[in-house]
Amino acid sequence: MKDLKPEIMEKMKRFAENFSKKSGTVVNPNKEAAEAVISGLASHVEELGKPLCPCNFYPDKQEEIKRRRWICACDEMQILKYCHCLLFTNEEGLPITEYLPEWHEGRQIYGLVKDPTPDKGRALGRVDKIVNLLKDYVKEHNLDVSEEEIIEWAEKVARKK
């Protein structure tokens, strides 16, 4: 990776620290893992002007920026409190999977990881947002999950007011 501007790296480190506090997570305690993701975000800020998630492949990065779904903090993080990059984790360095349905790859890989701070984060954790996110996920992963099941899950895990 090319040399990144120190001020952009610092900006992304501050963002990660501030968002983790706001969301009730921590920046991954594995410093190498955290640094790799932060460097990727900083690289995208330099290249694209936005902190596009570095843990995905994008056929068209500009199109992804327009969709905004994978700009950090991504929709999965703001809706389901799940960071597939492992930047925002619990104290043990595990992603929170409590709000993921059992058929989501994060839940299949890590099992159930409870949210230690359910009163924080998930600013967009409303039923409609969860339904739309999971419908997209099901479509993109060619899963056989009914809309009824998605709605039922969304109602179960939606952020309570």
Present the secondary structure layout.
Elements lengths: L5 H18 L2 E2 L3 H18 L12 H7 L7 H6 L7 E2 L15 H6 L16 H14 L6 H11 L4
Antiparallel strand pairs: 1-2
Helix pairs in contact: 1-2, 6-7
Question: Could you explain how this protein is built, in words?
Answer:
30% of the residues are buried. This protein has 7 helices and 2 strands. It has 161 residues and is mainly α. The chain starts with 5 loop residues before the first helix and ends with a helix. Strands 1-2 form a two-stranded antiparallel ribbon. It has a single domain (6-157), classed as Ferredoxin Thioredoxin Reductase.
What characteristics describe this protein?
7 helices; 50% helix; 161 residues
Brief rundown of the structure:
By secondary structure, the protein is mainly α. The protein has helices at 6-23, 31-48, 61-67, 75-80, 105-110, 127-140, 147-157, and strands at 26-27, 88-89. The chain has one domain: Ferredoxin thioredoxin reductase catalytic beta subunit (Ferredoxin Thioredoxin Reductase).
